[in-house]
Each structure stands twice: as structure tokens, then as C-alpha cells.
UniProtKB/TrEMBL annotation:
Name of protein: Glutamate--tRNA ligase
Primary role: Catalyzes the attachment of glutamate to tRNA(Glu) in a two-step reaction: glutamate is first activated by ATP to form Glu-AMP and then transferred to the acceptor end of tRNA(Glu).
All copies of domain Aminoacyl-tRNA synthetase class I anticodon-binding, residue ranges: 339-464
Family assignment from sequence similarity: Belongs to the class-I aminoacyl-tRNA synthetase family. Glutamate--tRNA ligase type 1 subfamily.
SUPFAM superfamilies in the cross-refs: An anticodon-binding domain of class I aminoacyl-tRNA synthetases, Nucleotidylyl transferase
Gene3D superfamilies from the UniProt entry: 1.10.10.350, HUPs
Source species, domain of life: Bacteria
Organism: Plastorhodobacter daqingensis
Quaternary organization: Monomer.
Amino acid sequence: MTSAPVVTRFAPSPTGYLHIGGARTALFNWLYARGRGGRFLLRIEDTDRERSTPEATAAILRGLEWLGLDWDGEAISQFERRDRHAEVAQEMLARGHAYKCFATQEEIEAFRDAARAEGRSTLYQSPWRDADPASHPDAPFVIRLRAPRSGETVIEDAVQGTVRFRNDQLDDMVCLRSDGTPTYMLAVVVDDHDMEVTHVIRGDDHLNNAARQALVYQAMGWPVPVFAHIPLIHGPDGKKLSKRHGALGVEEYQAMGYPAAGIRNYLARLGWSHGDDEFFTDAQAREWFDLAGIGRAPARLDFKKLENICGQHIAAADDAALLHELEGFLAATGAAPLMDWQRDRLARGMYCLKERAKTFPELLEKARFALAERPLEREARAEAALDPVSRGILGELTPQLQSASWTREALEETVAGVAGAHGLGLGKLAAPLRAALAGRTVTPSVFDMMLVLGREETVARLGEVAA
């Protein structure tokens, strides 16, 4: 008998941006499904109508798309499925697994006040649980789950292990409110069942929910999915991640210039491990990722590690793909788009620009010589390198470059020949050449710059300073 295909889901609430912790949850679900030929689904949990906004939904979708976490089918709106949720509540009622509760909010508060005063549990026990339906008043009611009062509910969690909950600590939770709207706890179970979700991978702040949700599965006679509750992400100081630790939203990381592949790699490694592997490709992550590799302790965000991983991904990236993502970064930050000639130079120069750049701003800083137009603005130190002697030598070099073959070997030979004629080593000409070609003293190799700029632009820039 073949086992059912793996189906995972990511179910964010659209009340704000895509949090970096939510992004990791989405990534884990995506990796688990994609690595097993399964499906990865997206559900927008928009039942909180006061706080849910279309703008937040759009931000979540943008964040997932930037991260490259593609989902199968259309994104599902939980709110639009409210009639189905209500239908299941009515079905549980008909089966005797739920009941109508007519208690008012005042009565519930009075019960809790009395329980507190007497030192008893404040877990509400409805007097309507076993009431004769004939005694039901013509009044508003909620539908409550008829939870077991004794024994245990056991969750076999793929990350946390066996977790036991005493049933006398679980209340008869409300499934359908008096206005006919479903509660989150019911909606999640119905949606996961109808979407055929086999594995619920989510933050361990939902672990307590799993016990109550398992009771809904049991009441409906539905198979319970595999639960895997992953620890939250903490800041470098070991405290819950917050604004004081820096960026929280995925789009902030894009705007800071981190490549998506680097973020995927780093987030995968945040709380999950595969031996000592730190740097890996998407294909390796999909092949290796499993629930057994997820630790139980909270992971700590480390920006130095993130930058290191991102630098490795920039260096290893395909040049054309890197240029495409660089343009996405410029658009995300509101910067001016590249002109055709700038794009051409970047494409030619990516081989020497991407080494040792940890972010796109660092890469662009190295590429300033290629993106600049004449006349160049020169730093004071660069201007100082262009003394009369240096300008004279560059004046001799310029016509020779006009006739040289435009290869690295030929360029090195030509420059070395002119330097040698003046009793200088190549290194002595490097500073004035950098000043002439880039207007700066810290640049890529002068020969890389010549190859990226091309003969015409190189000669023109030297001509601006040559005596």
C-alpha cells in the first residue's frame, strides 16, 4: 500500500509583515514537502477582520515570492470558508460531541470570580453540558466542544517528543460563537483536514493548541496529522526576538541587500542541522531536510553568520541570476533602475565584483567604477596619486592601450612595459591607474576594471588625467 503524499501548509495571519520567524516556518514546510515530492499550500488566516488587511496579505505574498518559496494552487482565505467551519460545528453537535451553551459572559465571569475566591480552577465548566435539550431557552448560544473530563490527550510530536495533557486541564472550548462565526481553533482543524494536510509544522507557541485541536479531529473521526512544533527564534542575547535586535520583517532583509539564497540557507540552519554542514544549495537542503534534525532549544539569530553565508552564496551564484536579483534589490529600495550600459558592465564584471561581497550594497560599492559616468568625481587621496610624473606616464600608456589586444595578459604586458621603461614596478602604477579609472584608491584589480570598462571607456578615462 502506498502512503499518502506529503502535504504541508503555511498559515500566516495578515496582521502585519512576514516575520523572519514566520519565514523560517514557511521554509521548513516548503523544504519538507518539496524534498518528498509533496505539496506545499498557503492559507491566509484572515478571520480576525479588525486586524487583517489586504496590505499585510500582499506583504506576506511578496516576502514568500522573494524568498522563492512557491506554493501549490491558490492561496486560501480562511474567512471565506466560514460556512464550512460552521457546518462542521453543527455536525459535531448532531453527533453529541458538542453542545449548545447559553451561558452569558456575566455568568462565566461570576463562575471564575467564585472559583478564584475558593482557590478552585477557573477553567469554565458549563452547566449546559448535560442539560436536556427540552430545557434550552430561546436565547443566543455558542457551540462548545464536549471535551473529555478525565484521562490524557497525548500528542506524539515529531520535534518535542511525547507531550501529555491532562484532560481536566482542557476546557470545553467554543467552536462557534453566538453570532455564528467560527473560532480560530475550529477553523484551523477543518481547513487542515479539508486541505489534506499530513504534517503541521509550526512554532512551539502552538503546542498547547495541538491538544485542543486533536480533540476536534477525534470528535469528527478524522486522522490527526503529524505535529512538529519548532522552537522560536531568539535574538543574539537569548531573549525573544524583537525590534531591539534589528530587522524582523523579511522585506527588511531584502532591502538590506541579502540574497534570497543566503537567507534560505541561513534560516534552514537556524534550528535544524545536517552534520556540520553550514553552506549548502537549495537542492541539498531539499534532499537533507527532515524533522529529526530540528532541535528543541530556541535558535539564536546571528548576523555575522548570516553575512558569512550570504557572502558565500553571492560568490557561488550564477552571474545572470545575481544581476537579476540585484535589480530586484534596487527596485525594493526605491533606487534608480540600471541603464543598459550599466547593466552590460555589471554583467561583464560580475566575476570580479561578487567575490567577498556579503550584501548587494557591498557589491555595488565595489562596482562604483563601472556604474559611474565621466567626468569622474575623485577622492582627495586619488587626486593626490595623480602627480605630474604619474600623469605623464599615463599619457604614454594611453596610445599603447589603443592598439593593445584587450586581454588580461596583453594589458598586463603593456602596462608593465611602460612602467619598466621608467624603472618602475607594476605596483607603482597601480595607484594612479585606480585614481584615473575609478576616482578612488580602493577598487578591484586595475586589469579587471579595464576589461569591464572596455577599451573605449578605459582610454577616455585615462585621457581625462593624462598629461
